Structure formats: structure tokens, C-alpha cells
Amino acid sequence: MAENFQDNLHCTDLVHYLPNHLAISLLNKKRWHLALVKINCSRALLSLLNEILAKHNKISMLPASARLLISIDLAISLLNKKRWHLAFVKINCSRALLSLLNEILAKHNKISMLPASASFLISIDQPREHTCCFSSVNQTILSKIVKEKNHDELFKLGGAKRIAVSLKTDANHGIDGATEDIFIRQKEFGSNTYSKPPTMGFLHFILEAFKDPTILILLACATLSLGFGIKENGPKEGWYDGGSIFVAVFLVISVSAISNFRQSRQFDKLSKVSNNILIEVVRNGRRQQMSIFDIVVGDIVCLKIGDQVPADGLFLDGHSLQVDESSMTGESDHVEIDRDRNPFLFSGTKVSNNILIEVVRNGRRQQISIFDIVVGDIVCLKIGDQVPADGLFLDGHSLQVDESSMTGMNTTWGEMMSTISRDSNEQTPLQSRLNKLTSSIGKVGLAVAFLVLVVLLVRFFTGNTTDENGNKEFNGFGKTKVDDVISGVLGIIAAAVTIVVVAIPEGLPLAVTLTLAYSMKRMMSDQAMVRRLSACETMGSATTICTDKTGTLTLNQMKTTKFWLGKECVEGKSYISIPTGVLELLHQGVGLNTTGSVYVSTASVFEFYGSPTEKAILSWAVLELNMDLEKVKRNCSIVHVEAFNSEKKRSGILMKKNEDDTIHAHWKGAAEMILAMCSHYYDLEGNVNHLNNFERMKFDQIIQGMAASSLRCIAFAYKQVLEVEHVIPSGRPKIQDHGLTLLGLVGLKDPCRPGVKKAVEDFQHAGVCVKMITGDNIFTAKAIATECGILRLNEEMDDGLVVEGVEFRNYTEEERMEKVDKICVMARSSPFDKLLMVQCLKKKGHVVAVTGDGTNDAPALKEADIGLSMGIQGTEVAKESSDIIILDDNFASLATVLRWGRCVYNNIQKFIQFQLTVNVAALTINFVAAVSAGEVPLTAVQLLWVNLIMDTLGALALATEKPTMELMGKPPVGRTEPLITNVMWRNLLAQALYQIVVLLTLQFKGESIFGVSEKVNDTLIFNTFVLCQVFNEFNARKLEKKNVFEGIHRNKLFIGIIGITIILQVVMVEFLKKFADTERLNWSQWGFCIGISAASWPIGWLIKCIPVPGKPIFSYVNWKLLRCI
After folding, report:
1. What's the predicted TM-score (pTM) here?
2. How far is it, in rounded angstroms, from Cα 405 to Cα 409?
3. Which of 286, 785, 803, 1071 is least surrounded by CB atoms within 10 angstroms?
4. Is 526 assigned a catalytic role?
5. Out of 548, 762, 833, 865, which one is annotated catalytic?
């Protein structure tokens, strides 16, 4: 029987795969997934049980009650036709079958033959005791060690490496990374997520809308009006006036709250995307990128400068690691991380750039961190070194510095950084213009409302106003009821407050928010993620773009195309002619002095990881020079590392050969920088030759030749040092950086992106100046700039179009301001040079956009009006300092961002023109009518309805226009251009004047012209006024073009809003007479209203034929003289 039972186990193949499904379902925490897994379990078990029973003639052992129970449950579930019910029935079936199977197997002593995988899967539904897979550590212990920086507890557990062993983490290959392993770790220690505060609900935005003081005043007036109306006329008739205002106010509030609520949800989605940071980890021996939320306890994370530490952890291995803990402590000090003194890393901190500076202390030269320099230190500077603090020149050709006057925040750089690192309250160009406009309109509106209030109150109390029956509303304080007086005054106050509501452009912020939110959503699909909403409109005003070269103008797909050994170019099969000794040194210099890595898959396919430059060099060394990276690492050990930084443009290592304990210093970096450190070079025969001035000039020509071919030139050099030379009194290893021997030069080709030249042309056509700022040498920079179209062919460098960073830095302030406009390319630039250029351009009135991807670009990104970071190559520090993230690192995407920015600005101008037309018309009509006739033609409810059309629906209609190519044919707006242009003044004044003439004519002569009652005449005024705004919305679509219908079929939202507005207006006039205080109109009256309103189209066409001056109209006014008067 045992053999037969074993034969039947083949039917459980499905069961072997179920633990993976189970782990996935638990990780996803979805009940339906877990239910489906258990349904599959029950099916597999039922099949297994049936075969066992059939082969052993034990079918009678299945209790009839069990069969009946399962059949009844299944029948019930099928009758209910609910998946969740079916799922639970199947789960119960699996339990019953499991119990029955265990009984059968126990009777036949076959329990050991049940597959382990099936046992694990099935037993998850039964309660079991919790068993920890990591016996010596748990979540509490690990949290305590890191958060409290508990060295004693860490020492008891054996340090970071012993903890890694306890967490089943291999120091070289990381964790296993299988699904079960991830599931167990997340179950034991939790996931790398945090609880978020509850999102704001719709009620929150409703309450926010109620905080508007004008809304509160209207509600108070509506409440009193409602009370007095019910008291006088009873509940049936008395609620109309007050209730109508209530309904109108709540309608305005609801539309505004819905808009803000939808925008809030959109920002939540954006936040999820921006917080999903990709981190490089090592799992199963391979470097791979994954979401920060997928990190688990035990993962080995590879950090580089600018990265965010994804979780609390311990330092395992590495060199020269410093982190910025300002996000945790509020202090800007950089904390050095090492295995012994401080191995603790905190989530959210950033890896900073640790620059080593050589100082003289106690008569000995030693290298210390730039952050450890104190006042009084003597600093030894060489070519390319960063000056660590403000100071005074002391002596010597080596440019020593003494008596440093200030450090840290007190230096020029420190002051500059401190002003940039703080969140600036500086307003964007459009924000400052909008604030001035809103303030001006609000003041005018308040003045008009106050005059109307005074005039109406005077006329009321002097007995010059009458009610519907023609009787005086006020006959004296003794003769008129108090209730009637209060009711009349409240009506006047409500009318005045409603004028304020219409006058104050509350829809302007809504229009800005809507158009920004809409453009932000569309820009996301165009590979641009907006982090700061106002950056959309600021980009539309940009006059200058300072862009990087690598990865932005180029593809950032490096490939080694040239190699020079000595003065000979080695290519193809010639690599076998490289002498063995030189080849070994090259293997060491490439394989050890790198931040990249090589992984060999099971199919013997090489996979390269790291930056594009590192990958290009590693692939060249492995595939062309036959380098075995693992062998190199086994034969050598690294003593010290000096990481690459953008100031010195080099990186170095100190390594020891294990076989003979000899020590070598290897350097890699920008070719001219490394060449300046060399005194000898290897030739193709393997001989070491002295590098005299003539030979040095030859190498300079080689470097310039490669650079002129758009190649990035990298040099390798080394020096064998005595063991006593690499240790200095402070104990910090020192890497020799002079008297080196040049090993070779490589040229890396990084082709331009396909659409870059067209994008540069688009920018230039749009009047935007493109400046390239790069760290490459001047010949490479000039070649790439010419290829991209930034420079034209045969433009000479002495024209001032191309400069080096050091040259620009050494200009006087006056020279920089004079030449900055002309500069198109800056080569060999530092982050300080980029920042300096941005500041100069802003001082000259430019609106500056800057691209950046490195940590050192953060100051320039923050200082610029628009900071644009790269989504692929950009560090987290750069992304957090930017306003917009270019997700594909493509310069052509910047043109899309510019087009959307201009569209935002243009849409806001359209809405302003539309709103100001309504404001001017409404204020003028109400003021003239109030002064002359003692009443306003539009009631509070009607004005609120106009406010709704103008503010909310108008904003929705005009704020969602898509960008057109014609926007790129206009010059940039800049900082000084007025928000309301002469074209806009021409359009809005013409339309407002037309509306005022028509409506005042109706106000004073309408009854006699049409032979209608006062109530019908007021309805005609209201209906004509609203329809005028509807037709004028079409005019507002095009500020300058005469054809206002162009492209209207592509904006379905605009057509929909126009249709909704017209339908609601018909309902207001024809069916809500009591609510809107209107009378029904006949067909001829409707035709008159539509005809008068439609006349705004030909008027708009004719007005656009009138030319306007380019100079802003208000620039002709002498404001100083007016103030004096």
C-alpha cells in the first residue's frame, strides 16, 4: 500500500507551487487573493483524497454527512452567487477535507508521505505558535541599537557583521530575495512604510469655504432675511428671499469645495509617486534597483553621494561616508560614518560629499575633512582644490592660507548656502502680479460697494424708495414698523455685500489653481513631474535655461571608443600587444578604483552596474582587456578611498597587493587633471618615460583631439609608494597625488539625444537663451554645444561665447554682469560657478531655469526661478531641491514644460480678461443705477449666480485650454511685463463698454421700449447680462486672433460648460421665478436677449483690428507726479 500511495503523490504537483501564492497574498493583504489560493488548495486536496480512497476501495470511509454538508454549502453559495461566499465555503471544505485526510493517513500510518509543501500551505489556516526565524535579534533590539546609538548593545551582538549573519545576510551577496524570505522578514520586522495622516475629506473643504468673511456676511443677511420673511409672510411665502440667498451661497461653496477636493486627491496621487524613491540593493549577488517601500530588514543597500538613506541601519563596509542629518536634528553638520566610532545610519538622511583638505598641524601635513577645519589652520592648496573657508594668503608658490577669518556659516559660501537652504518666501513673477491685481480690484469693489450702501441707505431713510406696491418703504421712525426698517436695511446690506462678492476676484485663485493642476496632470504624461505647483506658470516666463550636458543634452550611454597607451592609439586586436605589467596595473586601476560592479549570470553573460561612465570603463576592461574583476579583488586589498567629487574631478585609491604587500596609489579622473599630477608615462613597449614639457604638450594635443570629437577624456595613473608613506600622524591614510606614472587615456563617446537640436531651435525661436554648463573640458563642451545647436559653426572662443568656470569666477562683479548675457557655454565649471551664473542672470532681470542632477547642484536649483532635476540620474538631494523633475532626463521634455508653462500663463490671462469685463460691467451698472434710481437692477441671488458663472464655471472653461505651437513663437514674458497687456485692455474695455451701454439702456428705457412691467424688465437685464458673459467667454479664448472658434472642438470641457450654463440660465428664468426673482420671458424677448449678447462676437472681431502700442499703457503715466498731486 505504501508504494501505491507514493505513486499517487504525482497529483499534488500544483500544491508544491502554492506557498509562493500564499506568501504573495499575505504580502498584498488582499482577502480575495487568499481566498482563491485556498480554493485551489481544496481542489488539490479533494483530487488527492478521491484518488487515495478509490485505489484503496475506501470510498465508504468518507462520511455521508460530510459529503452532504459540502453539497449543501456549495448549493447555498451558488444560489447566492457571491464570490466571497463561495470562497469561504471552499475554505471550510478544505478544512474538512484536511481533517478527514489526516484521519485516513493516520489509520494507515502514512502521515510522513504527505508532501511538506502541502503541509505548510494547509496549516496556515490552523492556529500555530509563533516561531522566530532570527533567534538572536528582533525588531525591538535593532531599533534600540540604532535610535539610541547603543555601542554596548552593538558590541554584545558582535558588531554590524555579526548582526548581518544573524539576519541571514551574506556580506557580499545580500539576502536570498526569494518570495518566502521577503514574506518572513516583513512578517518578523514589518515593512518599510509609515502610517500617513488621514486625508482631508470633503467636509474639510466645505468648512474652509465658509471661512470667507463675505460668505459669512451673506449667510448672516440670509438668516435675518429668512426670519423676517417668515414672520411677515408666513413659512409658505416668506422663505423665498432668505432661502434663495442660502441656496445660491451653498451652490457657490459646493462647487468651490468640489474643485479643491479633487485637486487635493490629485496631489495625494502625486505625493505617492514622488515618495516612491528607487534604491540600489544587493540581493542574491546582484545589484538591483527597487522601491524604497520594498526594502526589508537584512537588505544590503549601496549608497552614493546624494542618496537618501532608505531606512535605519548599520554601516557594513565602504569608505569616506558622510551624511547630512539636518532632516533629523535640524543641524547642518555633516556626520562621518565608520564601522567603529559611528556605524549608525538614520532613515531620511542624505549622503553628503566628504572633501578631504590637506592642512599643516604641529609641523606635519595631514588630510582632514573640510568640515573639521578650524580658524587658524594652514591649508595647503593645489590646482583644482576647493578653498575650504574664507582666509588670507600667507606665503609660497603653493598658495598656502593662514588666519582663516571665518568658517562655516560665516564664510561667503556659508552665507550663500544658508540663504538658499531655507525655504524662500519669494513670490513667483505671476504670483506677485496677481496679488497686486487682486488687491487693486478688491479696493475698487469695496469703494463701489460702500458708495452704493451709503446712497441706498440715504435714499431709504429719506423716503425715496418704494415697495412693490408703490408705497414708501420708510415713513419715519414712529410710523414705520421696526421689522420693516430692519428688513429694508438688511436688503440694502445684502445688495452691497453681494457687489463685493462679485467685485472681489475670488475666482482668480481658483482659475490659477485649476489651470496649474490641469497642466500638472498633463505634464506628468509628458515626462515632467511638478513638485511645486507655481513652477508651471513660472516656467512660462523663463528667459534663460542653464542646462547640463551629460544625460540631458546627451543620452548618458557612454561607450569607450578610444584608448591611448603613451602616444599610440590602441584599437581592436591591438589590445593583445599591451605589455603584461601595464595590463595588470590597468586592471587594478579600473577594477578597484570604481563605484560600479560586474555580475556574471549563469549563462556567462556580463551585467554591469554603476554610473554610465563606470559601466563604460568596466565593460571596456572586461570585454577588451579580459579583466577578471573577482580575481583582481582577491589579489588586492583596498587601504583607503578618496571618492570622486565635482571640485577635483578625480577619484583615488590606496591598495595593497596581497602577494608581496607592495602598496600602489591609483588615480582616475579628468585627463588634464590627472596629467598635471604625472611626471612619467608608459609607452606601448611597457617602458617608463620621463614626461617633459614637449611630451606633455603632445599629450595635451591628444586630449584636445579627442575632446574636439565630442569624447570625454579619462586618464589613469598610478604610483608605487613605500609603506611608511601612507600613514600620517592622524592615522588617516594619504594617497600620493604627485609624481605619478600615466597608464593611459580613454575616450568615452556619449551621443547627443535625437531631439535635442530641434528642442534648442524651439527654445531659440521662443526667445529663450540656452546656456550649457558642464564639467567637461572646453573642447568637448564646444563640440557638443555645436552639435546641439547652442553654438554655430566657426564661432570663436575669443568672442566670449565659451568660457571656463575658473575664468568666469575670477571676473570682477562688473565684468560678470557685462558678459553673462553673451556666454553660451561654460566648461570645467563647478557647482559654485553655476550658482554664480544664476545669481548674475537674476540680477539682470532674467527668469532663470536650471537643470541639475548632482548633490552639488542643489544650491543652483534652489536659487533658480525654476529648478529642473533629472529623474533617472538625479540624486535625491537634487530632486528635493527642484521644482520640476524631468522623468526621462531628456532635454526635449524641457520644451514641453516651457510650452505648458506658457499655456498656463496664457490661460490665466484669458480668465483675467473675462473676469475684469464682468467686474467693470457689473460694478458700473449697479453703481449708476443705485445713484440715479435708488435701486440695483440685479438682486443678491442673481449676482451670486453671475459670480458662479464668472468665477467657477468660467475658470473651468478657460483654464483647461491645451498649449499650441503658436505660444512658442512669442517672446518670453520675463519679470517686468505687466500681467494685463495692452491687447487685453483693448478687448475688455470694448466689451465692458458695450455691456454697460446696453444694460443701462434697458434699465432706464426698457419698460417703455418693450412695453413690459418692471419685473419683466429686470429679468431682461439679468438674462442679457448673463448671456453676454456666455458669448464673451468665446472671445476670451483668443486674446489676439480674430477666429475665436479655432480648435474649440478639441476642448470638450469648454463646450460642456457653455451648454450647462445656458441650460441652468433657462431654468433660472423660466422655472425658478420665486428663487431668482424673475418673470418668464416669451420667444421674442429671448430672441432679443440672445441677439444683443451675440453682437459681442462681431464687436470682438472689429476691436481686434485696432492696433495697440507695444509699450504698456500705464508706462505713459507719471505715477510720482500723481502721488505728489
Report:
1. 0.65
2. 12
3. 1071
4. no
5. 548
